[in-house]
């Protein structure tokens, strides 16, 4: 029997017809766009082109010859015809890829989360802690007051402040680098330094242009801050294709060309593959899919067998890695502790325990939680091998994966389909010993 499917993390989009007496917005209404210019076009020249078209500029980028703004249909047509413009694309909305699955809690003593233990990164298990490595969390910000997080005061925000006002970025941060002390939890790389790059708002949403601005800041400052930023975690995304925003991909490429490893969540839509998710589809990034850690329970008479550990999460986007294109899931990692099957034969996710906005801990599930396990392991590798390149990191993650060719196991969810490759679960000891 196939499980009907999980209730959590499922989003239904409904097209609502306009109410009687109301009309659709005119086609000429201004919308958010990103304009990619030829190499060598200066900011002043870009601004002049934007103004001449009748567009309103909202942002210029430094490391990519692109600008964001608002343009109506006429202005967009003028931009598309300009000899200095390569492309004009919509400035699309991006969202965080994790959801709460439990109430806030306070632990009496430090807990080693199940995901950290599963990948062999619990305190004392490996010789490295990520000390001297900067990890940028491109997300909703980080809670600077959380006693279990070591956050640099140097930060970027696309909004009013770098402080987290949603909670997602704080949870992601704890998985990467919650401090090894006596409280709450411990992260994969507890010695690493976190940098807040706030590109998502209090709803966990943002625009491509905000993501680009955050990546632009990292490119400008990675080598200037101490410790230097060597790893970027992006637990966010949207449906899309490889070339639907060349400027965003170029912003990612600017980081990888500087030797910075970019780890991203694969996506929380099991009906899609990584090739249909942005930025997970970019060959330059390390895309991470989600698995369970331990066996759950089952109250379903038609499916008495529980979902066991190392099973593909019912919500995860996947897609076999293609070494020729560089597109696909590089490795899987824990994105939830377990999945329980309810009496009604639905899957219920029990999330990863990590740091909570306002203090203490909370559980969340998603590929948002899988990616930071890998980002933390990359920080360990970077401490071990300071000259580590993004491709070195990918190669060692794949070579050193645990249960290679065995996991992830097939999900019992009705919407799950095996992508043809069992890439294994990230392993800190395996990666650190990989050639």
Can you characterise this structure?
With 435 residues, the chain is of the alpha/beta class. The chain has 2 domains: 31-91, Alpha-Beta Plaits (2-Layer Sandwich), CATH 3.30.70; 94-433, Peptidase S8/S53 domain (Rossmann fold), CATH 3.40.50. 22% of the residues lie in helices and 21% in strands. It is built from 9 helices and 20 strands. The chain has helices spanning 43-53, 73-81, 114-118, 168-177, 208-221, 246-257, 367-384, 390-399, 428-433; strands at 31-37, 56-60, 66-71, 85-90, 93-96, 99-100, 134-139, 156-157, 193-198, 205-207, 229-234, 236-239, 261-265, 277-278, 286-291, 329-334, 338-341, 347-350, 352-355, 361-365. The chain has a 7-stranded parallel sheet with strand order 8-9-7-11-13-15-16, sandwiched between helices. A hairpin with a 5-residue loop joins strand 2 (56-60) and strand 3. Helix 4 (168-177) runs parallel beside helix 7 (367-384) and helix 5 packs parallel to helix 6. The two termini are 43 Å apart.
């Amino acid at each position: 029997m196939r499980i009907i499917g999980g209730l959590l993390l499922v989003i239904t989009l409904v097209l609502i017809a306009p109410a009687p007496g109301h009309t659709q917005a005119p086609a000429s209404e201004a919308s958010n766009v990103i304009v990619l210019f030829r190499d060598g076009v200066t900011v002043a020249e870009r601004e002049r082109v934007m103004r001449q078209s009748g567009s309103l500029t909202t942002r210029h980028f430094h490391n990519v010859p692109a600008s964001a703004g608002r343009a109506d249909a006429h202005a967009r047509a003028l931009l598309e015809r300009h000899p200095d413009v390569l492309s004009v694309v919509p400035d699309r909305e991006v969202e965080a890829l994790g959801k709460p699955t439990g109430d806030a809690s306070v632990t009496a003593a430090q807990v080693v989360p199940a995901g950290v233990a599963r990948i062999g990164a619990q305190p004392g298990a490996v010789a490295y802690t990520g000390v001297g490595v900067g990890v940028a969390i491109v997300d909703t910000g980080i809670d600077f007051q959380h006693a279990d997080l070591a956050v640099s005061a140097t930060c970027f925000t696309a909004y009013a402040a770098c402080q987290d006002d949603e909670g997602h970025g704080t949870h992601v941060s704890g998985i990467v680098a919650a401090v090894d002390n006596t409280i709450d939890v411990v992260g994969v790389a507890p010695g690493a330094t976190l940098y807040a790059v706030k590109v998502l708002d209090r709803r966990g949403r943002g625009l491509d242009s905000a993501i680009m601005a955050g990546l632009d800041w990292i490119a400008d400052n990675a080598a200037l801050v101490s410790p230097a930023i060597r790893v970027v975690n992006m637990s966010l995304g949207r449906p899309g294709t490889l070339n639907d925003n060349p400027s965003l991909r170029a912003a990612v490429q600017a980081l990888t060309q500087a030797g910075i490893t970019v780890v991203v969540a694969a996506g929380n839509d099991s009906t899609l593959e990584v090739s249909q998710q942005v930025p997970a589809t970019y060959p330059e990034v390390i895309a991470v899919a989600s698995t369970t850690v331990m066996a759950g329970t089952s109250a379903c008479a038609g499916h008495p067998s529980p979902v066991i550990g190392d099973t593909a999460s019912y919500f995860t986007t996947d897609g076999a890695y293609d070494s020729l294109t560089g597109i696909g899931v590089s490795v899987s990692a824990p994105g939830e502790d377990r999945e329980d099957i309810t009496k009604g034969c639905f899957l219920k996710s029990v999330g990863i325990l990590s740091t909570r906005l306002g203090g203490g801990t909370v559980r969340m599930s998603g590929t948002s939680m899988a990616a930071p396990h890998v980002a933390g392991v990359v920080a360990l590798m970077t401490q071990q091998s300071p000259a580590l390149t993004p491709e070195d990191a990918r190669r060692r993650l794949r070579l050193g994966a645990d249960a290679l060719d065995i996991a992830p196991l097939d999900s019992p969810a009705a919407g799950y389909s095996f992508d043809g490759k069992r890439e294994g679960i990230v392993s800190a000891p395996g990666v650190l010993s990989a050639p």
